[in-house]
Design goal:
Helices cover about 35% and strands about 15% of the residues. Strand 1, helix 4 and strand 2 form a beta-alpha-beta unit. The protein has a single domain, classed as Vaccinia Virus protein VP39 (Rossmann fold, 3-Layer(aba) Sandwich). The protein is α/β, with parallel strands linked by helices and about 270 residues long. The chain is built from ten helices and eight strands. Bound molecules: S-adenosylmethionine. S-adenosylmethionine (SAM) binds next to helix 1 and helix 3. S-adenosylmethionine binds next to helix 1 and helix 3. It comes from Virgisporangium ochraceum. Pfam families: Methyltransf_19. This is S-adenosyl methyltransferase.
């Protein structure tokens, strides 16, 4: 298989990968046959999957605008994905040119592409790190050069916590971010919801995901709520992504397979 120039030698392009599958779902070009095949199998199980991906990305844009309007000028976007339409710095800096953004992802393709589009942006950077090691991210010199943790910051964990299995104690990981950020900071998440009666096809996709570097761990709304311990939940609470501060007059079809929530650190 030919390797395009944008993919580093260390990247295994024979195994599907969450960043590239999501890129394909959103209509991007940084993906391979193995990712497209994976997405198409998943789409058999969840026929609305492409709409779910777009609805999640639209929520990301709305929540960044909402946070910017609330006065937030620093963003730590963890599990940021391969840059695509409506990246955090583009949304935030449209309203607040001084807004500062650090993108973090474990995937080398996402990070190298982020670094290349941010080369001329002094207020934003991209680093490679694993969200399960918050101390490495919070103590990273590039994070310290862009974000002042003594001032309010928005930590974004959008469509990524369902790639953290229970064994890795996601609530404790979130608590580490919570304890490191200033009062008045925010945490914004979206998270895949457990289907109480999954179809055989859905179980098969879950098995397929187990063979990727990022197996999927969907959760119930109650389990997701427990992860926001210590934050004050912003209205309207934990809701389908399409229902989190929708655009006025929006007729977007409700997508209940992924929920959104924003918490404020008191
Ligand atoms: C579905 S994409 C979401 C991208 C973006 N946050 C959005 O919602 O549009 C999930 C991203 O999380 C990244 N990811 C998965 N596990 C991660 C981890 N442990 N640490 C950092 N990033 C991770 C993947 O590489 C992928 O780019």
């Amino acid at each position: 298989m030919d390797r395009p120039g944008w993919v580093a030698d260390e990247v295994d392009i024979t195994v599907p990968n969450a960043a590239r599958i999501y890129d394909f779902a959103l209509g991007g070009f940084h993906n391979f046959e193995v990712d497209r095949q994976f997405f198409e199998a998943a789409e058999q199980a969840w026929p609305n999957l492409r709409l779910v991906a777009h609805a999640n990305r639209a929520y990301l844009r709305r929540v960044v605008q909402w946070l910017t309007d609330a006065g937030i000028r620093q963003f730590l976007d963890v599990g940021s994905g391969i840059p695509t339409l409506g990246n955090v710095h583009e949304v935030a800096q449209r309203t607040a040119p001084d807004a500062r953004v650090v993108y973090v992802d474990v995937d080398p393709v996402a990070v190298s592409h982020g670094q290349s589009i941010l080369a001329d942006n002094p207020n934003a950077c991209a680093i490679r790190a694993d969200l399960r090691r918050p101390e490495e991210i919070l103590g990273h010199p590039d994070v310290a050069s862009v974000i002042d943790l003594t001032q309010p910051v928005a930590v974004l964990l959008i469509a990524v916590l369902h790639f953290v299995p229970d064994d890795d104690r996601p609530a404790e990981i979130i608590a580490s971010y919570r304890d490191a950020i200033a009062s008045g900071s925010y945490l914004a998440i979206s998270h895949g919801v457990t289907d109480p009666a999954p179809s055989d096809e859905q179980e098969r996709v879950r098995d397929l995901y187990r063979r990727t570097p990022t197996p999927i761990s969907t959760r119930t709304p109650e389990e997701i709520a427990a992860m926001l311990d210590g934050f004050d939940l912003v209205e309207p609470g934990i809701v389908p992504v399409t229902e989190w501060h929708p655009e006025p007059g929006s007729d977007e079809e409700p997508q209940r397979d992924i929920v959104a929530a924003v918490g404020r650190r008191p």
